[in-house]
Amino acid sequence: QVRLVESGGGLVQPGGSLRLSCAASGFDVDDYVIGWFRQAPGKEREGVSCISRRGSSTSYADSVKGRFTISRDNAKNTVYLQMNSLKPEDTAVYYCAAGNWGTTTRDYSYWGQGTQVTVSS
Question: At residue 111, does pLDDT exceed 90?
Fold first, then answer.
């Protein structure tokens, strides 16, 4: 059974950091592009970052460039999202997804259940 499980979310003050993990089971994570998305209340789900199968290519939304870093450890079947200099507007449920290269939800076939990130003082 294909499964993606996110972890690492929580409450953090503005300027703080969090590292999200996306653990895959039931398939080899290096068979897919992995993307991170987020959805804030009342807003559409938006692409944050994605990483190619071997990790040689990455993409970031303009809103997170220079602050977030995506990486993958295929040996651990896990993808990470390091989030630094967090802002209140980063508050959202963060999802990882497996699929093909792209920044829209249509590019991805498998989704995790999401992890809440709240940035607040």
Answer: yes
